[in-house]
């Protein structure tokens, strides 16, 4: 049997597996099965904790529910940090991901702040398919147009909108996710600026669809909004599942503060 923890950060939910002792290699089909909300446990992402031999407390592998791998997952990073801190009693945790080394601070029960590192603003780092201005992409579909883009270790595009009421996210989201301007696909954020310190965001996630929250998406949105002169360097980002406090610090790093919760523990049959 394969024990797992079911965790979530503002409703963005994860199946967390511990492979620090026994290595785990899950085929994309197995990931899709576990993530299936009817035939499996159900989750937006599957997170595998692995040992790290370069000074971090652990390595975190992030797999979307479609089986694709991502370099970053902000909400999962808070959850894994809380889990590791619970084990060790530490206040600070270092987690390595494909995108780099992240440092997290436990601020209280179920409250974690992660230094997500600097955003990547060049077209080749997002990545985009050509030398476009990442502040204004020549992309429009239906009621949305003119997004900004950046990477937080994973690709994000942010469309700024005035009203969610008639926004067909389930229709335009997957089309934009797979637009050829994004050679590695992209997470698509739809952001309403409510003030210079408050943003309402919904995200169609690459490889997972519309989620209740997206941590790296909230970071990318604050960065893109500030670059456009729409917010300050700190804002509350309100999503369907909850709020995150995002700060683009003077040192260029993006700090993401928010909840990390465990829903339940379970066991998977050892057939994977
Ligand atoms: N779908 C994302 C990974 C999960 C990001 C999100 N759940 C977060 O909290 O950052 C991608 O493929 O880049």
TrEMBL record:
A single MF term (Gene Ontology): diaminopimelate epimerase activity
Residues binding substrate: 12, 45, 64, 74-75, 154, 187, 205-206, 215-216
Catalytic residues identified in the record: 73, 214
Pfam families reported in the protein's UniProt record: DAP_epimerase
Enzyme Commission no: 5.1.1.7
Reactions it catalyzes: (2S,6S)-2,6-diaminopimelate = meso-2,6-diaminopimelate
InterPro entries named among the record's database cross-references: DAP_epimerase_AS (IPR018510), DAP_epimerase_DapF (IPR001653)
Record PROSITE patterns: DAP_EPIMERASE
Chain's role: Catalyzes the stereoinversion of LL-2,6-diaminopimelate (L,L-DAP) to meso-diaminopimelate (meso-DAP), a precursor of L-lysine and an essential component of the bacterial peptidoglycan.
The protein's name: Diaminopimelate epimerase
Organism listed in the record: Acidocella aminolytica 101 = DSM 11237
Taxonomic classification: Bacteria, Pseudomonadati, Pseudomonadota, Alphaproteobacteria, Acetobacterales
């Amino acid at each position: 049997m394969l024990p797992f923890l079911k965790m979530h950060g503002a409703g963005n939910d994860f199946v967390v597996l511990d492979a620090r002792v026994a290595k785990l290699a899950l085929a994309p089909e197995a990931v899709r099965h576990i993530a299936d909300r009817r035939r499996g446990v159900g989750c937006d992402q599957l997170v595998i904790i692995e040992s790290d031999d370069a000074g971090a407390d652990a390595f975190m592998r992030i797999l979307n529910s479609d089986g694709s791998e991502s370099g970053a997952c902000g909400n999962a990073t808070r959850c894994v940090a809380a889990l590791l801190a619970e084990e060790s009693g530490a206040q600070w945790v270092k987690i390595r991901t494909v995108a780099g080394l992240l440092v997290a601070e436990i601020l209280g029960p179920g409250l974690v702040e992660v230094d997500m590192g600097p955003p990547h603003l060049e077209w080749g780092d997002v990545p985009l398919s050509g030398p476009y201005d990442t502040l204004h992409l020549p992309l429009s579909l239906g009621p949305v147009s003119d997004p900004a883009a950046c990477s937080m270790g994973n690709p994000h595009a942010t469309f700024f909108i005035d009203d969610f009421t008639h926004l067909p996210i389930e229709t335009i989201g997957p089309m934009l996710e797979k637009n050829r301007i994004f050679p590695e696909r992209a997470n698509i954020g739809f952001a309403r600026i409510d003030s210079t310190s408050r943003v309402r965001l919904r995200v169609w996630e690459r490889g997972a669809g519309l989620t209740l929250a997206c941590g790296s998406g909230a970071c990318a949105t604050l960065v893109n909004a500030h670059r456009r002169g729409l917010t300050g360097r700190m804002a509350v980002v309100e999503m369907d599942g909850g709020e995150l406090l995002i700060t683009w610090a003077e040192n260029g790093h993006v700090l993401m503060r928010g909840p990390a919760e465990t829903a339940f523990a379970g066991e998977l049959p050892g057939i994977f």
